[in-house]
Every structure is written in structure tokens, then in C-alpha cells.
């Protein structure tokens, strides 16, 4: 009987131990979390104020759980409470909570009651991941690939060199043919005329009065044409592309990120001018965007773009390390690209808000421009041609309801151009 009792007791202990082990393992695995899900949750809820390895609006969160446990003796339960209701933790008199609150200017962290403990576990698992360093070999390979792409095709120098060799061979061939024909003529007893007995071509041309008259008229007309073309280009700066004090890529901002032109040039909707964005407009985004992580080229590298952001910080007087303004700011001296003469009146709001003209109509495909340049000539003829051919957006536009009705009857059309609405009158642009 004793053997049976001991056997059952051992069996029960083994079973109980197995159950405890399973519960502990499940609890441990539940606490570890899923880093992949945590990354998604981090980007959706935390990335606006936090980075893993850099202090921003809030502290850096790499290994935050381990740091809090080692330095402050705080466990995961404290993190749950802080994420769900940081204001409540602060009001409870928690020492570390109040320290963080005061350190970051008295700005309490947004409460996230919608995040479950499992969600927070996933986020903590993501923050606990080891930072991945980009191998130098990979960067070198990428640079080599970019260099290979630029040198893979046949260069212009090679083509020009081949053409030069071809023309040289042709010239040598003609000289040899000339010598051969002369030898053949001498062998046959054919006398060749002496060069001194032939009249030079230019003398024959000068003695022909008709050719001289036609040439003079042609030269006068050609000269007048080129002089007229030169003077007509005075003040026309199409293609003007100055170097700016801070490199601003419209391709990245308006193209890749899809930022509306009127977010930066907000006065274009309500004012005569489009306005120059203030540095504060840039800092609305770049307080959090301190580095570039998009596509690069051999000319415009990540280091180049990051340096431009540093220039912006210097202009704004922003201390990125301590996430605060120093007060030492200065204006950015942007170089103006588009400039109409002083005697020309142009109103952005009339074209953008009332007429519904897209920015690209005048400024070209800015969403593709790495460096901004003047796309259109901005001449009087160019403006008049647009007024003659462009239909004004009158549908659902209260500004034009009455005039549209009257002019539609007058011209018998449903669509109206700016010219039909008086857009060719001198006083519209010159007064």
C-alpha cells in the first residue's frame, strides 16, 4: 500500500509541476509581446512624440522598461497606469511621474485608455529590440550601384571620339583618292590646270552683283531677327534656378509626401501674393522630423538632406537635443524666383480661389522639381494666350453666377473664357 501511495503522490506532484510550468510559460510569453504588432501600434500612437533613440516631445523609448526597472524600480504595472492615464499618476503624487511632467514643461502625456495591456506588451517588445546598425558594406554597395547606373551607358565623349576618328579616316581617304587620280592623269598625259590660272571663289562671288545684293538682304534680315529676339528676351527669366540658402525639395514635400501647395503658401488663397512660408511653418513638421529616410541619389544623399534640416534648426533657434527654442533665431534669406514687373497687377486669390486655377498651370510640375525653377516665361503674350484659351470655372461658383448668365446669352455659349469676360482689357492688369 505504501508503494501505491508514494506512486500516486509522485504522479500528483509531477502533474502539478507541469501545470505551474505551463501557466508560467504562458504568462511569460504573454508579457514578452509581439514586436511586429508593437511597431505598428508604436507608429500609430507614439511616433508623433517619441522616437526609440532620440529625445523629442517625449523621452526616447529604447529599452524603456528595463531602464525604468533599473533606475527607478518601476515595474510594468506602472507603465500600464502611465499609458492609460498619466494625469492620474501625476495627481497621485508619484515622484517619477511628476519628475517627467516637470522635465517636459508641464505637458502631460496623452491618455491611451483604448490600448489594452496586451497592446502595451507588444509596444514594449518593440522598444526592447536591439538597434539595427546599417552595415558599411551595404552603403558602399548602394553607392557603387548608383555610380554604375550613371556609367553603364555609352558616354557622349565616346560617341564624339568615334565620329572624330571616322571624319579623320574620311579626310585621309579623300586625300589618297586625289593623289591617285593625279597620278593616273599624269600617266595618261592629261594636263591639269594650274591653280594660279583659276579665279578664287571669293573673287567670283564679289564680282557677281546679284549674289552680293541677295547676301546683303539676307544678312540684314537675319541680323534684325536675332536683334529682335534678343531684346524680346530682356526681363524674361524662364528657366531661372537660383541656389537657395537652404535646399528645399518640392519633389519630396509636394510630390512624395503630397503636401498641398497652399499649406505652405497659405496666403495664395486670400491675398494678391502667395507669400513666403515662415520658419515656424517648417517647424510644425520638422520638430518631429529630424532626419531624412526617403530615397536618395548620388548627388542628394541622406547626409545632405539631414544637413539642410540642421540649417533650418539654426534659423529657427531650435535646440534639437533638449527639444526647446533657444531664442537665437534669424530669417532665411530665400532668393526670389518668380517676379513680375512693377507695372503688372496679378492677384493670386482671384486665380486660385475664384477661377480655380491649379498652381501647376503657371509654376509647372513643382511636385517633380528637386530644385525649384521658373517654368513659364510669364510674358504678356503668355498671359493673354491663357486668357483666350482657358475656360473660367463658373459651375457652382457664386462669384460668377450673374455675369455667367448674362454673357452666356450674349455669346451663345455655355463655357466662357477669361477673354470673353473682359480679360483682354488693358486695365485688368495695368492700372
Automatic annotation (TrEMBL):
It comes from the Bacteria. SUPFAM superfamilies: Cytochrome c, MFS general substrate transporter, Multiheme cytochromes. Residues 33-131 form the Cytochrome c domain. The keyword Heme applies. PROSITE patterns: CYTC. Keywords: Electron transport, Heme, Iron, Membrane, Metal-binding, Transmembrane, Transmembrane helix, Transport. The keyword Metal-binding applies. The chain crosses the membrane at residues 158-177, 210-231. PANTHER family: CYTOCHROME C7-LIKE DOMAIN-CONTAINING PROTEIN, LIPOPROTEIN CYTOCHROME C. This is C-type cytochrome. It comes from Aestuariibaculum lutulentum.
Amino acid at each position: 500500500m505504501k508503494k501505491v501511495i508514494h506512486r500516486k503522490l509522485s504522479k500528483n506532484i509531477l502533474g502539478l509541476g507541469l501545470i505551474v510550468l505551463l501557466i508560467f510559460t504562458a504568462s511569460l510569453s504573454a508579457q514578452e509581446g509581439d514586436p511586429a504588432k508593437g511597431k505598428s501600434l508604436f507608429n500609430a500612437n507614439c511616433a508623433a512624440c517619441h522616437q526609440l533613440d532620440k529625445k523629442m516631445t517625449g523621452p526616447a523609448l529604447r529599452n524603456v522598461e528595463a531602464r525604468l526597472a533599473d533606475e527607478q524600480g518601476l515595474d510594468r504595472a506602472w507603465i500600464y497606469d502611465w499609458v492609460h492615464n498619466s494625469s492620474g499618476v501625476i495627481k497621485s503624487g508619484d515622484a517619477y511621474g511628476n519628475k517627467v511632467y516637470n522635465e517636459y514643461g508641464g505637458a502631460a502625456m496623452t491618455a491611451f485608455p483604448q490600448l489594452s495591456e496586451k497592446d502595451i506588451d507588444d509596444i514594449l517588445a518593440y522598444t526592447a529590440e536591439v538597434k539595427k546598425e546599417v552595415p558599411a558594406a551595404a552603403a558602399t554597395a548602394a553607392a557603387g550601384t548608383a555610380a554604375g547606373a550613371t556609367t553603364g551607358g555609352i558616354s557622349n565623349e565616346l560617341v564624339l571620339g568615334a565620329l572624330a576618328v571616322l571624319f579623320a579616316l574620311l579626310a585621309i581617304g579623300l586625300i589618297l583618292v586625289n593623289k591617285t587620280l593625279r597620278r593616273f592623269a599624269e600617266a595618261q598625259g592629261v594636263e591639269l590646270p594650274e591653280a594660279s590660272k583659276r579665279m578664287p571663289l571669293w573673287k567670283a562671288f564679289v564680282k557677281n552683283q546679284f549674289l552680293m545684293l541677295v547676301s546683303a538682304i539676307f544678312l540684314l534680315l537675319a541680323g534684325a531677327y536675332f536683334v529682335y529676339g534678343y531684346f524680346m528676351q530682356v526681363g524674361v527669366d524662364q528657366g531661372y534656378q537660383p541656389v537657395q540658402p537652404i535646399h528645399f525639395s518640392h519633389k519630396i514635400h509636394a510630390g512624395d509626401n503630397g503636401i498641398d501647395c497652399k499649406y505652405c503658401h497659405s496666403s495664395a488663397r486670400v491675398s494678391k501674393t502667395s507669400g513666403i512660408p515662415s520658419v515656424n511653418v517648417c517647424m510644425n513638421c520638422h520638430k518631429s522630423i529630424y532626419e531624412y529616410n526617403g530615397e536618395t541619389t548620388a548627388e542628394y544623399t541622406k547626409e545632405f538632406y539631414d544637413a539642410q534640416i540642421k540649417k533650418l534648426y539654426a534659423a529657427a533657434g531650435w535646440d534639437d537635443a533638449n527639444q526647446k527654442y533657444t531664442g537665437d533665431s534669424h530669417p532665411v534669406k530665400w532668393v526670389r524666383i518668380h517676379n513680375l514687373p512693377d507695372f503688372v497687377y496679378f492677384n493670386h486669390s482671384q486665380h486660385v480661389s475664384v477661377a480655380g486655377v491649379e498652381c501647376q498651370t503657371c509654376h509647372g510640375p513643382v511636385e517633380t522639381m528637386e530644385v525649384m525653377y521658373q517654368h513659364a516665361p510669364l510674358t504678356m503674350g503668355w498671359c493673354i494666350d491663357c486668357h483666350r484659351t482657358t475656360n473660367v470655372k463658373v459651375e457652382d461658383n457664386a462669384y460668377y453666377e450673374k455675369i455667367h448668365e448674362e454673357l452666356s446669352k450674349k455669346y451663345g455659349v455655355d463655357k466662357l473664357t477669361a477673354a470673353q469676360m473682359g480679360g483682354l482689357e488693358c486695365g485688368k492688369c495695368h492700372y
